Amino acid sequence: MMELNNDDLKSFAMFESCTGVQAADVLITESAVVFLVSKEDMGKAIGSKGANITRVRQAFGRQVLIFEDNSDMEQFLRALFAPIPITNINVHEKMNSKTVFVTVDESNRGAAIGKGGDRIKIQRALLQRKFNCDLRLVAH
Fold this sequence. Notes:
The protein is an alpha/beta fold and about 140 residues long. It has helices spanning about 5-20, 40-45, 50-60, 75-80, 110-115, 120-130; strands at about 25-30, 30-35, 65-70, 85-95, 95-105, 135-140. The chain is about 40% helix and about 30% strand. The longest helix is centred in the N-terminal third of the chain and has 14 residues, at about 5-20.
């Protein structure tokens, strides 16, 4: 079970007041505030013409990302990487650790990593929190 600090709790409350949606998780990084939301609530969280997500970004004064939460690891990863298509997902278990190798086309490598590695750092942190797995990106 993850522990939430005061910033996390404030973030949940601010997100819910701006969108009317209860987030499943929040991750606060240097570059962004990231929320996991159920598939059913994604549209409401974004809002008509992006109104809710714009309001959330203004409230936080920084980049805010919303990803679809899913208890299925493959579906969760596909949502994290969207719109970048994943060509393969391999899970390797060794002793007490699990590593997921996600393969993307070489032409999408930069987009998958993100500016300064921000996107891959967020993906790694969310996968670690949700499934206790490490993430490795493979480009072909």
